[in-house]
Amino acid sequence: MPPSATNLTNDEQMLLVNESLNTIRQQTIQMKKLLDVKGKSMESLKPASTLLSELRTSNLSPKNYYELYVSIYDSLEYLGNYLKDNYPSKNLSNLYELVQYAGNIIPRLYLMITVGTVFMSVPDAPVKEIMKDMIEMCRGVQHPIRGLFLRYYLSQRTKNLLPIFNDPANGTLQDSVNFIITNFIEMNKLWVRLQHQGHSKERKKRISERQELQILVGSNLVRLSQLEGVDKHYYKETILPAILEQIIQCRDMIAQEYLFDVIIQVFPDEFHLYTLRELLDSTISLIPQVSLKKILITLLERLTTYIDRESLDGIQALTINGKTDDEEGVEGDETAEKTHNKKILEKAEEKEATVTEGTATEESKTQTKDENIDVEALFNIFYSHFIKLNKVRPDLTIDDITALYYSLSKLSLSYYPDNFENVDLIYSETLNRYNELKDTVESSNALTEENLKNILLLPLNFSSLVSNDVSKKEKLNLKLLLNLKNYQSLLSAQSSKVQVSISNEILKTLLSNKFKLENEEQIEKVFQVLDSIISNKETITVAQDLKVEEINKRSENAGGEVNEYPYETSVKQENLAKLFHLIYNSNPIAHSKLLSTAQAFVSQKKNKLTKFLYPSLIFDYLKLIKRLHFRIGKVSQKSMNFSPELKSELIASYELELKSVFQKVSKLADELYNQGELELSLKLLISISETSNAIGNNGFTNEFFIKIYSIYEEMISSKQQYQIIMQLISTLITFYKSFQNGTNSDKENYDLLITKAVLYSARLLKKPDQCRAVFSASHLWFQSTVLASTDPSAPSTDASAEENDNKRILECLQKSLRIADSCIESSVTVELFVEILNECIYYYIHSNFIDANYINNLIELIKTNLSEVDDLPIKHFKRTCEYIARQKEIDERFQLVRY
Amino acid sequence: MSSRKKTLLKVIVLGDSGVGKTSLMQQFVNGKFSHQYKATIGADFLTKELNIDDKNVTIQLWDTAGQERFQSLGVAFYRGADCCVLVYDVTNAKSFEHLGFWKDEFLIQANIKNPNSFPFVVLGNKIDIDESKRTVANKKAMQWCEEKGNIPYFETSAKEAVNIDQAFDIVARNAFQQELENEAEFNEDYSDAINIQLDGDQGGCAC
């Protein structure tokens, strides 16, 4: 007979299986029938033996063989139950002998076990001897698959019959343990031997067969873990050494990996904590082909989930107490303490209990948090083991190592959420090992990269790791990040791609959580971590990847302007820009320092990305200026209980800071200007001037506007200029009040500023732009009139000044009419006329310096030109006329207007 | 039928790893609960003698490994099952979502002839855990069971022995019903091989 399983295809095997199942069914019916006939029960052994013969086959794969086994198990279960209920127990001894006369070894031993286990179950049976006899007899089958299933049957049938009390006559717990371990050793030998039989080309098939069979071998370890009366001491002294010895001795990769997995899974966590050193040490003796990574991570993960399960139980213990005793429930901490004390007491009791007394029935009482040092030393035991591995297993790859360290850091954070040194140690060691091994093939593979990423994202995933609470996911634990001294070095050692992806994750989380950055330390750490984005490493990588042509193509697509950065970059930089908004300190001076610190990180990079970042920084500075200004106002209030000295000191310091912040923003705008970002810098200066105007600093406002004009003069594109001049005019209009309230020189300065604005308006390149800018600029002189009528506190202007202003307005309107008239296209001219008409109507409503005649003339002028123009101006004109009609209803003066 | 011929009911317990299958069975069979977590590998059964309407039955509860890697020999032991218990953990939404998978898997692998009438029972375990941790609402589970053909549903705690006996009583009864049907079918198939007369002679001589 060939030792390995069959060469038949699965379909062919299925035919055999079905045939056998039929035979088994028929013989089972036969057996049951005979069992029911009084006095014929012995004859039932014949069909039983016949059906068992089906298990003699060598033609089936383990899975198919298992089909027969399951079916036969049911039949034998029936037989066993029948014998137990109906067979005189005094005769079982004879029957046990009798069935062993069966001709073939497989049926013989299955029947022996069936009767033997029934025999064991009756009172006063020589349990120990039966066990010994059965286990010895099973040696008779050395065919791996058949032997494994036979011994599995032995294990299943004896399950609830093994002695657990120390009754020397009928067997002791030790006998049971020996019985199972012997069976385990024999099964493992059969299982390993299968690997070395048959042709070498069938190696793959044998591996898959062995993997199918593994469960049979592992079931012995399950039995051991189910034995009542085994505590961790007994496990450590007796069980673990025996099974480890066999596992190490067999020197078989599949067996070693699988059986370690099983040990870790089937024995309780408490046992593992108690035997951690032994378990770890034994892994060193495994053959090199075994994946230590797999084994150690299984162990680490099991122990990590243990603490989670424990904390869940802890919560429950607390709530249960709270329910039964409300008073205790109020003081939660005390309750917890009491529970804890109770646990310690119970542990002490447990310690006294010995194996021989059997803590069996007390299993549920076994307390969870161990009194021994291992929970405390858990991290160190693993860590020193990993260090040891460096020496004894130099063949471990960087992929293995990083995966192990990631698992260890998860364990550490679960057990000791406040201990950051452990994690820092891992970072440092990971970095060392990474540097040593970074030139190996594995260093750049996806797995290694993933592991390193996971390690680096720990401060982000920390909460979800520790509490297992999904809702807490993705919150940055800044405390952890700040305490990791080696974080930055490990991060910097990564490829740009990894760095950028980590930085982005962290940035995203910071923003979505609206995390406040309140001190220098936090800002430094965060900006360091984000360095890869600030330095724009990604674009550099992208640029290296893309061909030059493609980059050029991109810039062409961006509307002719040279756009160095792809859209994605600006999105990412936008996120980075938002980061400045997270900076906050209740003390405005401290806040200012924080902003400067952040600014330094960005400025020192000297890359052109500042154009994405400075605007938001400038706006944060401007916000700060308003805060400082508000503070000064508040401190000056009499109600504040400051001494005069302190008051003036505070005000002085705030004013000094305010001034320095203005200098900073002005410098930032300059920098942008120097980078060629004229329009951006100009627009920012407008915002700056608005702020300085809002806090009433006309000097600054004036200076900023002079700066604005000088930049404006350099700008070439007319379209930009028009938009900017309109913005300038509208900004200047808002400044009117503060300048008129100011000194004489303020008034003069303002006059210069607005005159200049009209001058620029008239100098625009395109006529329509000129025209519109000029009539818009006319409003610059109209403020006094408006303010006088709406705001009683407005500066009273003397009549001559007002007359002067009105004259300027009319001048502007005249000029714009002239410009409109000089346009070549009549449609454009008429459109501009209609717009000027609207301006005139506005002035007519709000003041008196324009009379109805002026308007009527303009309307006539438009009408005469109307025939030659297209739709748009006509429509606009009609709407204007409708407006006049409505004004007639509410304003008598409009009766004079004709259209 | 001879009274000494005890009916054997085969019940398969399925569900994700860690939902408490082993604990439920231990509580039902031995009245015990252990805090210690031991993963189940392969398949293993516990038996318990029960009395259903004055009939003695033996219920054979098959505990299974929730983790696939521990089920290397396949699931031939599903065959001949009389009832299937689907377990999930009320604090673990995934384990609830997987119930459908386990149900279908069972029906296919066990080669059930009438999938629509085969008895299932669903257990939502770990209700002892604080309500705030619960992620699967009672209503949601009830609805699922209703949609799948009015599967009986129980919320249980293996730890505090809540609803265990009630749940397994229904399991046993439904399994018993199924077993009677199976037997009738079996007897039909092999009617000529069985002489029912013989059974009667032996009646009443069991102790």
UniProtKB/TrEMBL annotation, chain A:
For membrane topology, the record states: Peripheral membrane protein
Q: Which stretches does UniProt call biased (Basic and acidic residues)?
A: 335-354
Asked whether the keyword Ligase is assigned, the reply is no
**Region (Disordered) spans which residues?**
325-367
The listed locations are:
Membrane
| Keywords in alphabetical order | Membrane, Protein transport, Transport
**Where is this chain compositionally biased, Acidic residues type?**
325-334
Choose any GO biological process term that the UniProt entry carries and state it. retrograde transport, endosome to Golgi
> What would be one Gene Ontology cellular-component term for the protein?
retromer, cargo-selective complex
The protein's matches in Pfam families, at most eight in alphabetical order, are given as: Vps35
> What is the role of this chain?
Plays a role in vesicular protein sorting.
PANTHER family linked: VACUOLAR PROTEIN SORTING-ASSOCIATED PROTEIN 35, VACUOLAR SORTING PROTEIN 35
The UniProt entry's sequence similarity note says:
Belongs to the VPS35 family.
The protein in question is named Vacuolar protein sorting-associated protein 35
Tell me what organism the protein belongs to: Saccharomycopsis crataegensis
Automatic annotation (TrEMBL), chain B:
GO CC list: fungal-type vacuole membrane; late endosome
Give the family from UniProt: Belongs to the small GTPase superfamily. Rab family.
**Pfam families in alphabetical order:** Ras (PF00071)
SUPFAM superfamilies (UniProt xref): P-loop containing nucleoside triphosphate hydrolases (SSF52540)
CDD domains tied to this protein = Rab7
> Which keywords has UniProt assigned to this entry?
GTP-binding, Lipoprotein, Methylation, Nucleotide-binding, Prenylation
Keyword Lipoprotein listed: yes
Top-rank taxon: Eukaryota
GO terms for biological process, alphabetical? regulation of vacuole fusion, non-autophagic
* SMART domains reported for this sequence: RAB (SM00175), RAN (SM00176), RAS (SM00173), RHO (SM00174)
Gene Ontology terms for molecular function: GTP binding; GTPase activity
Q: What is this protein called?
A: Rab family GTPase
